[in-house]
Amino acid sequence: MRLRNKPWAQDYIHAHPEVVIANPESRKGKWYEEFGNHNPVHVEVGTGKGQFVIGMARQNPHINYIGIELYDSVIVVALEKVLEQESLPNLRLLNVNGKDLTEYFEKGDISQVYLNFSDPWPKTRHAKRRLTHANFLTLYKELMPEGGEVHFKTDNRGLFEYSLMSMTDFGMKLQFVSLDLHANEPEDNVRTEYEEKFAAKGQPIYRLEAKFK
Ligand SMILES: C[S@@+](CC[C@H](N)C(=O)[O-])C[C@H]1O[C@@H](n2cnc3c(N)ncnc32)[C@H](O)[C@@H]1O
């Protein structure tokens, strides 16, 4: 997702370092100082306009959430939504590339990773850009304690099939797989922007949970 260029986005982001962390490198290994507690940290890579990570932070006040988004024109929409909320002390945003996670986090900083409606990159030559490629799984594993989990939702069947293979080839244990999440939608499911869009068109939503061994 890349919204129309917003020349004001950077200024707006810089004006709100309490939400979009300005120097995330400086928090590496010390995210508990940023949040003021030792609660688990869950990270969504490719957070888009933020509906999921905001909903999760509201639903689970004892978990700290970090939404990571590459484009300032997109994360600024998430920022606006955060600022509309009364108070979300357990949520931060990072305007960075998920491939650089090790610059901002060290082993044990993250206890769970969420990937929602990640860009499918259907061409084989772009497979390394998929957020469920082995290179990304290696990164996530490096930053989580043993037994860390990746939770993934998508409307894209090809990406879902690829991710099932990629994760099992990587030696992860699949704990949950649904080929139609909304056929029996869990009460605590927080829908993302894309999820609502595809569900409205009647498309099935695929979901999995996988654990590093
Ligand atoms: C298709 S959108 C889905 C947004 C949201 N998760 C949802 O479900 O509504 C994918 C988002 O991931 C972001 N993204 C893709 N690759 C990324 C990366 N390597 N690091 C950070 N964000 C990334 C894109 O900019 C885009 O906003």
UniProtKB/TrEMBL annotation:
Residues that hold substrate according to the record: K123, D155, T192, E193, Y194, E195
Catalytic activity reported: guanosine(46) in tRNA + S-adenosyl-L-methionine = N(7)-methylguanosine(46) in tRNA + S-adenosyl-L-homocysteine
EC numbers, comma separated: 2.1.1.33
Keyword Nucleotide-binding: no
Sorted UniProt keywords: Methyltransferase, S-adenosyl-L-methionine, Transferase, tRNA processing
Transferase keyword on record: yes
InterPro entries listed in its UniProt record: SAM-dependent_MTases_sf, tRNA_(Gua-N-7)_MeTrfase_Trmb, tRNA_methyltr_TrmB_bact
Signal peptide: none
Positions that bind S-adenosyl-L-methionine: E44, E69, N97, D119
Annotated Gene3D superfamilies: Vaccinia Virus protein VP39
PANTHER family: 3-DEOXY-D-MANNO-OCTULOSONIC-ACID TRANSFERASE/TRNA GUANINE-N 7 - -METHYLTRANSFERASE (PTHR23417), PENTACOTRIPEPTIDE-REPEAT REGION OF PRORP DOMAIN-CONTAINING PROTEIN (PTHR23417:SF14)
Primary role: Catalyzes the formation of N(7)-methylguanine at position 46 (m7G46) in tRNA.
Family to which this protein belongs: Belongs to the class I-like SAM-binding methyltransferase superfamily. TrmB family.
Protein name, entry field: tRNA (guanine-N(7)-)-methyltransferase
Organism of derivation: Tetzosporium hominis
Encoding gene (name): trmB
